[in-house]
Automatic annotation (TrEMBL):
One of its GO terms (biological process) is C4-dicarboxylate transport. It is a multi-pass membrane protein. The keyword Cell inner membrane applies. Part of the tripartite ATP-independent periplasmic (TRAP) transport system. This is TRAP transporter small permease protein. It comes from the Bacteria. It holds the Pfam family DctQ. It is found in: Cell inner membrane.
Amino acid sequence: MDFRLYYPPFLLGLSRVIDALLALGGFAILTLVFANATLRSLAGFDLAWSLEVTAFLLLWTTFLGCAAVTARGAQMRVTEIVDILFSPRAKALLEHAINLLIAALLLSLIIKGISISGHTWRQSTTVLYWPVGLLYASMPAGMALSLMFHLFNSWLVLRGVPMTDGGGA
């Protein structure tokens, strides 16, 4: 169910920015890993800083990817049992309950992620001396974006807006 067809311009633009960041991050990860492996095999040395940058990019693309998936409503669902056992009204109530549970989970991840990031902010990475908290900040940032998309998507579901199966903006 691609929710982006119903997004206001701000959310749609944010979704597109996240998509662009994911594409750039993925390309940078591939480039760094390939260059580092090539240097290691051909020249006998590697770029120590590339491992830290790659770890940073992997963390941030993972959690931004969660937001991109949420914007599309593309989380994996197994609905066969629910379709067999529940009436349409019960399925709607179950979906609303699950949406509340997901919102609570995302909120708890934001709170815990802020705590972890804050506690590790004064630590530095070994090569680039970046704050370790910057790595951990990917979780609350990605979860906050996911929560924003999830709340809007849940509001659309509550309103009964028909969703599409794919495509999108």
